[in-house]
Specification:
Strand content: under 5%
Largest sheet: none
Structural class: mainly alpha
Number of strands: 0
Length: 204
Amino acid sequence: MDIAPLVGVSLVCAMGAMSPGPSLAVVLRNTISGGRTQGVMTGIGHGIGFGIYAMLAVTGLSAILIADESKFALLQLSGAVVLLWLSYNMLTYQPTGVEEEHPNSGRRGFVEGFMIAFLNPKILVFLVAVFSQFLDPQMDDLERVIMALLAGLIDTVWYVLVAIFLSGTTIIDKLRDNSILIDRMIGTVLLVLALALIGNYFIY
């Protein structure tokens, strides 16, 4: 197998994961409010959602979804609803000051991470654009699967590292001291994004 396409996909996916956006905001928020476990599980959930889209992209099934305008628009609307739900939670969040109050924080983080990725059709469009530059018609199914798994792994590792790094430094303590302000800021950004998606859906 030619390693050049894997290197190219790895670099592009790494840059995409590192770029600021709703996904990073949710990982940061969950790490601040729920600690390392919730942050790490958010990253894992996001990576799995991202990986599913990567698999669809390399197998060509993504073309079916993107070509079906009604299904694609419905997916966008679903993503907007998730963003609205997350923004509401952040805008109304009030810390209690009680430690270790998140017995299900890992499950919650995983679900939120998965949904923020899987219900974001822009990720699918991004992956289709990326893989179209590196996929070779001569590649067999195994090579395509390896490429998709690599993309999902890179996404997972990045967000997990973000959660681990933050939770292991004094930065997280400073962020937690300002958790209400940070939640309000992130919640406002997600709310604006959600309303924009909803607006595009009805205009569309």
